């Protein structure tokens, strides 16, 4: 029999601590949409997405009501478009992104991801076309997200791709300058990208995935912080235990929603992504959890250690609660999407260098960070190279989602609204890495023994 | 994960007032929902009434019933939620 305290505990998590399901994401394979003509391929993409995900939004909304759980986003991820893009009769793949946008509009979903390419070892014709099309595709769409995987622990780092992505990001920032360079908020550069990620901007439906699948991403930083507030004098072993128990509960809710959504949509249930995903709302911040552990401000010495504890405990608690854990699974540290991170940057305590260190112990990377709009493309590329190197060497996913905010300088702020939030422009070192970036080539895969 | 239970939990949270149980049970009977158990408790400063109900004979969709309960709560100045029982089971039982 249920205990009244347990019931109230759950209700409080939802009502007061912002517990929600961040996303129900349907992964859809588009491999059978490949045609010779770009127009025909675009039409097939629209048809398949709207057919498969036709009931996604109403089903998710019903589950939300019946179980009293807010399901914040309904999303779709698709096969990396570069795979389709190699076959069509057009160098420009923007029409395929426009078809994705049309499908998103018809379905009423929040985001659609998969305008993506995996180029860690080199480029196909479709990969080059896709990367060159990113600026126009993300400029002309609102809900389409793009990702490019430029490195892996098995393949090393494709530095030609890293160089290209620096230019793509600055170009995209200029094209969307009238909207605070928002295009860059929808583009992520990965190392060790995962194939079943439900979170944006990095979601795509990997080639090892089934025809169609439901993946769920949970949230819950507010719940973890609130649980820690009740134990202000606990030692760190106890802190870890509290986080594990809380993560278990959050993840069980995610697993329940995953099972229900898959049943009702008649597609296989995929993974639950354990990530603690913050929002710009007060009381829903990962930074504030680290501060609750005992830091005056996120970014202080000790931040990396606190984050390592948090990330590990979230995984340990969550992994038992779900049948299949996957995606990025950890703690997210997107600056603009986290009220505490924004405050820490404004106060000058949290620097880009500290964020980079933090990415070594959490999922994912330098995320939603705004830098001055005049930052040279090769500096952006070098920043990507550093972050990708951390992922490749440490056999983990890392990523860069950086916004060179055109016309803005350090001290200014940009604002996207909604879940994307707002970001203070952070200083970045601009001593030139141009020669390094212009060398091109591949950084070989790291040795996987002699670990030090 | 078992998602087939036909039981639900109705929670009423807020200030206690005359007629809350009458109003909620009236709505339950209107929509064919059978009340199995009622508990009342004060948690710290919050008053909470928890009802265990059976939804086998429910005449409307659960999501509609949930909306009805929410509306009733708004009329009474309390927060009423109707939620399938499994949510609490999975979160609090291994």
Question: How is the topology of this model organized?
Answer:
The complex is a heterodimer of chains A (452) and B (94).
Chain A: H1 4-16, E1 21-28, H2 38-52, H3 56-67, E2 71-78, H4 81-85, H5 94-107, E3 111-118, H6 125-140, E4 144-152, E5 156-158, H7 159-175, E6 187-191, E7 212-218, H8 221-229, H9 236-265, E8 269-273, H10 286-292, H11 303-319, H12 339-346, H13 352-358, E9 366-372, H14 377-393, E10 398-405, E11 413-417, E12 421-424, H15 434-439, E13 442-443
Parallel strand pairs in A: 1-2, 2-3, 3-4, 4-6, 7-8, 9-10
Antiparallel strand pairs in A: 1-7, 4-5, 5-13, 6-10, 11-12
Chain B: E1 7-14, H1 20-30, E2 34-43, E3 46-54, H2 62-76, E4 79-84, H3 86-92
Antiparallel strand pairs in B: 1-3, 1-4, 2-3
Helix pairs in contact in B: 1-2
Your description of this structure?
The complex is a heterodimer of chains A (452) and B (94). By secondary structure, chain A is α/β, with parallel strands linked by helices. Chain A has two domains: 166 residues, Anaerobic Ribonucleotide-triphosphate Reductase Large Chain, CATH 3.20.70.20; 228 residues, Anaerobic Ribonucleotide-triphosphate Reductase Large Chain, CATH 3.20.70. Chain A has 15 helices and 13 strands. In chain A, helix 3 crosses helix 9. The longest helix of chain A has 30 residues. The mean pLDDT of chain A is 95. Chain B is built from three helices and four strands; from the N terminus they run E-H-E-E-H-E-H. In chain B, a hairpin with a 2-residue loop joins strand 2 and strand 3. Chain B is globular. Chain B starts with 6 loop residues before the first strand and ends with a helix. Classes of the chains: A alpha/beta (452), B alpha+beta (94). At the A-B interface, helix 1, helix 3 and helix 9 of A face strand 1, strand 2, strand 3, helix 2 and strand 4 of B.
